[in-house]
Amino acid sequence: MEGSNEQDKAKKGLEGTAIDLPTNRRVNLKSATSDDDFTNILAHIKSSKTPAVIKYGAPWCPVCIQILPAFCRLSNNFPKLTFVYTDIDECPETTQHIRYTPTFQFYRNGEKVDEMYGAGGEERLHDRLWLHS
């Protein structure tokens, strides 16, 4: 029993949320599990100029947990966008500028072009994704 408990603690990113999340069929959903990982993902977004959305959240944030399944589900509807889930507790150095959870940042041509705070429901998130896709 102790072994499985240690395995659960070792899970990070989307796997560490312990939520049954929709499957991403497009391979455009990434999970930053450390500061180095987040730095590499962000550098790729900026250099590739691929449109992207980064969701900053935490497993202790009820609103973050509520919107996370929709975030994963919507990643299937917007295949040209890169979706990134970032747990602020797993990436403390690179996310110290985040003041509200959840925060969504939208990138286009390597530059941050928009930011949205709070969940506001799946429809609001869908509309913002549509705007930036």
UniProtKB/TrEMBL annotation:
Fetch the Pfam families from UniProt: Thioredoxin (PF00085)
Against InterPro entries, the record matches this protein to: Thioredoxin-like_sf, Thioredoxin_domain, TRL33
CDD domains in the cross-refs? TRX_family
Q: Where is the Thioredoxin domain?
A: 1-133
Q: What is this protein called?
A: Thioredoxin domain-containing protein
Origin species:
Glycine max (Soybean)
